[in-house]
Specification:
GO cellular component, one term: synapse
Bound molecules: coenzyme A
CATH class of the largest domain: Alpha Beta
CATH architecture of the largest domain: 2-Layer Sandwich
GO molecular function, one term: choline O-acetyltransferase activity
Number of strands: 18
Strand order of the largest sheet: 11-5-4-8-9-10-1-16
Pfam families: Carn_acyltransf
Structural class: alpha+beta
GO biological process, one term: neuromuscular synaptic transmission
Helix content: 40-55%
Distance between the termini: 40 Å
InterPro entries: Carn_acyl_trans, CAT-like_dom_sf, Cho/carn_acyl_trans, Cho/carn_acyl_trans_2
CATH topology of the largest domain: Chloramphenicol Acetyltransferase
């Protein structure tokens, strides 16, 4: 174990410099962002105009003409739009965040789909090399110690305030999501779920963790006789748990499988469980725990990044660790005996960025205070952890079989591809004087267009934590400018010159960056349109035509669902697609490489993750080549003319100079990552050919997986 953790920490060594985070300002408010501004409400006309310009190139001419009329009618003076807008303005006055509830219900709580793959993102850790089963328990004990440390920071409200990075850097961010990490629970409902938050004034703070092992659930008290267990105690208790879990005659059905089912199905199963007081006690313990630690059995011989991502997303189904989960709980730390480790998160409580911050704290804690455990204490006074008991009616057994079957279908259906693009990273992009995020988004548009010859509604999550109770809004990355660029890059007949393509690339990136700024400043259109729709519903008005229009459906079918989840520790995030014929594309830009996690469903004849990745890699190489070619020619011209490089990022620069900056000494230190070394185009092409399968190969691959 020491060697394995040592090796692992070596791979994380880039991050140790950022370990102490306590020098940052403690939160001065309740975490709800009391000192932050309220989310603004965009002007109705701005949103409607933007809606039309976002949709024009995604619709047929006929569809667009109809939509234009519908939108005009909605926005007419004295019309429905104005009425709803005035009501929204009132709502903004009266609420801390006018969209929060609407957004939460729409995005999560009303969604009836099963949480694994469809909703719960995961963080995948580097593969651990445990030499013996006890090594994985040491790892788990060490991590739980970190959780307890982190929980102390949260409980004492001394977690430092986050400040925005990247675009419009320096403003403080709402910290509310952090306080839900270890205290909330997503309760299933037959029509709508409820995000239950444990308020310490109402309920006692949880002082136990649930450990899942071989589909059994155990209560691990982390405070006994007013004393917090140390790492050695924790290891002793985990050791006891694995022994108890080994006893086959005491095995109870894998009730956790029920939580992997559709939300309505799980709500119904939970009602059935609640008939028995034994089950009520067990559910209560799970619902009030801090988090789960899932001690997984080995899953199989091959543990590539892609395989680990899939295992983290669905547990490998009933035959593997699919029942060793409780999906309603926001934080589930998975520690596999085979070294497959990570975190599964229930998404309604917080965003991926908060998950990353917490996870990085834990991993850095483990690096900063290496485990000194050699073996578990052989004799311990500690009471044995308690196994949760279930009484299962025949109906529950039937429901379990049905949940297992559905999870198995999900396992078979997930088409995952994790790819580390190593030819360049964000430093190269910054050198082009372009926003790395916008560049990657344009590359994703190019990838999709190459695969499918059309643009589609695209979602990119944009943080609105600059505002009170802020979560996210959408950056609609399928801009007209991106479409013009990708057409030029893919249509051989157009004979567009490199200079023209470069101009189009810059236009696409400028459009993307402008939309990003609109979104992070609370002026994007998705939350606004949602607010107008929900308000009409609340007022029991007939659904306005704009929300019944086909264009509105198209606009909300996010065939490409993307998100940047950067990390400073070696790990990556992934999630599933949000529509049956779509892709989930999560990316983690690093200074000299970018990790992509692409997901889709095998039963969709329209998608193939390997093919998408292939097109993405080709697109990134093509765009990189274009930048290199144009830069070298413009450098030559500049040398001749003695001019400076023209940049197309004036808007961003102006914005940034207007933003109140965080004091320099408080700025979060960015880990210094390795210098980018630009490879020659020829070198990169050779590597791409060897790293990615051909189109024919990927098709064969997908067909093979389907058969
Ligand atoms: N020239 C040179 N450098 C530039 C540049 C330009 N034109 N534009 C931006 N950069 C730099 C930035 O200053 C920043 O530098 P840093 O790495 O030193 O901080 C870096 O490039 C990254 O900026 P950029 O790529 O533009 O993106 P960003 O970091 O601002 O991120 C979003 C954009 C939309 C991803 C971000 O605002 C956000 O909302 N993130 C949250 C996403 C989320 O919620 N994910 C989880 C969902 S579950």
């Amino acid at each position: 174990m020491l060697i394995s953790l040592y090796l692992w920490t070596q791979s994380l060594s880039l991050c140790t410099a950022e370990m102490p985070v306590l020098d940052r300002e403690p939160s001065r408010d309740s975490g709800g962002g009391d000192g932050l501004p309220k989310l603004p409400l965009p002007a109705l006309k701005d949103t409607l105009d933007m809606y039309l310009s976002c949709m024009k190139h995604l619709l047929t001419e006929e569809q667009f003409n109809k939509t234009q009329n519908v939108v005009k009618q909605f926005g007419a003076p004295g019309g429905v739009g104005e009425l709803l807008q005035s009501k929204l303005m009132e709502r903004r006055e009266n609420k801390a965040n006018w969209v929060y509830e609407y957004w939460m219900n729409d995005m999560y709580l009303n969604n009836r789909l099963a949480l694994p793959v469809n909703s719960s993102p995961v963080m995948v850790f580097p593969l651990q090399h445990f030499r013996a089963p006890i090594d994985s328990l040491r790892f788990a004990a060490h991590m739980i110690s970190g959780v307890l440390e982190y929980k102390t920071l949260l409980d004492s409200r001394s977690l430092p305030v986050d400040y925005a990075r990247g675009q419009l850097a320096g403003t403080p961010l709402c910290m509310e999501q952090y306080y839900r990490l270890f205290t909330s629970y997503r309760l299933p409902g037959t029509e709508r779920d409820t995000l239950v938050a444990q308020e310490s004034s109402v309920m006692p703070e949880p002082e136990h963790i649930i450990v899942a092992c071989k589909n059994q659930f155990f209560v691990l008290d982390v405070v006994i006789n007013f004393r917090r267990l140390n790492e050695r105690d924790l290891l002793t208790q985990l050791d006891k748990i694995t022994r108890m879990a080994d006893s086959k005659e005491e095995h109870l059905p894998p009730i956790g499988l029920l939580t992997s089912d559709g939300r309505t199905e799980w709500a119904q199963a939970r009602s059935e469980l609640m008939r028995e007081s034994t089950n009520r006690d067990a559910l209560d313990m799970i619902e009030r725990c801090m988090c789960l630690v899932c001690l997984d059995d080995p899953s199989g011989p091959e543990l590539s990044d892609t395989t680990r991502a899939m295992l983290m997303l669905h547990g490998g189904g009933v035959a593997k660790n699919g029942g060793n989960r409780w999906y309603d709980k926001p934080m589930q730390f998975v520690v596999g005996a085979d070294g497959c480790c990570g975190v599964v998160c229930e998404h309604s409580a917080f965003e991926g960025i908060v998950l990353v911050q917490c996870t990085e704290y834990l991993l850095k804690y483990m690096i900063g205070s290496p485990s000194k455990l050699v073996r578990a204490a052989s004799v311990s006074e500690l009471p044995a952890p308690r196994r949760l008991r279930w009484k299962c009616s025949p109906e529950i057994h039937q429901l379990l079989a049905s949940s297992a079957d559905k999870l198995q279908r999900q396992v078979k259906n997930l088409d995952m591809n994790v790819y580390k693009f190593c030819d360049y990273g964000k430093e190269f992009i910054k050198k082009q004087k372009m926003s790395p995020d916008a560049y990657i988004q344009v590359a994703l548009q190019l990838a999709f267009y190459r695969c499918h010859s059309r643009p589609v509604s695209t979602y990119e999550s944009a943080s609105i934590r600059r505002f009170k109770q802020g979560r996210v809004d959408n950056i609609r990355s399928a801009t007209l400018e991106a479409l013009t660029f990708v057409k030029a890059m893919t249509d051989g007949k157009l004979h567009t010159s490199d200079t023209e393509k470069m101009e189009m690339l810059r236009d696409a990136i400028t459009a993307q960056t402008k939309y990003t700024i609109l979104s992070i400043t609370g002026m994007a259109i998705d939350n606004h349109l949602l607010g107008l729709r929900e308000l009409a519903h609340e007022l029991k008005m007939e659904k306005p035509e704009i929300f019944q229009d086909e264009a509105f459906l198209v606009s909300n079918q996010f065939i490409l669902s993307t998100s940047q989840v950067p990390t400073t520790v070696e790990m990556f995030c992934c999630y599933g697609p949000v529509v049956p014929n779509g892709y989930g594309a999560c990316y983690n830009p690093q200074s000299d490489h970018i990790i992509f996690s692409v997901s889709s469903f095998l039963d969709s004849p329209q998608t193939c993750s390997a093919e998408f990745v292939k097109c993405l890699v080709q697109g990134l190489m093509d765009i990189g080549d274009l930048c290199n070619k144009c830069n070298s020619s413009s450098n030559t011209t500049q040398k001749k003319q003695g001019q400076t490089l023209e940049t197309h990022t004036q808007t961003e620069t102006n914005w940034q100079s207007k933003t109140p900056q965080r004091p320099a000494d408080k700025t979060e230190t960015q880990q210094s990552l390795p210098q980018f070394v630009l490879k020659t185009p020829d070198q990169t092409k050779v590597e791409a050919q060897t790293q990615t399968p051909s189109l024919a190969e990927t098709r064969a691959l997908k067909n093979g997986s389907k058969s």
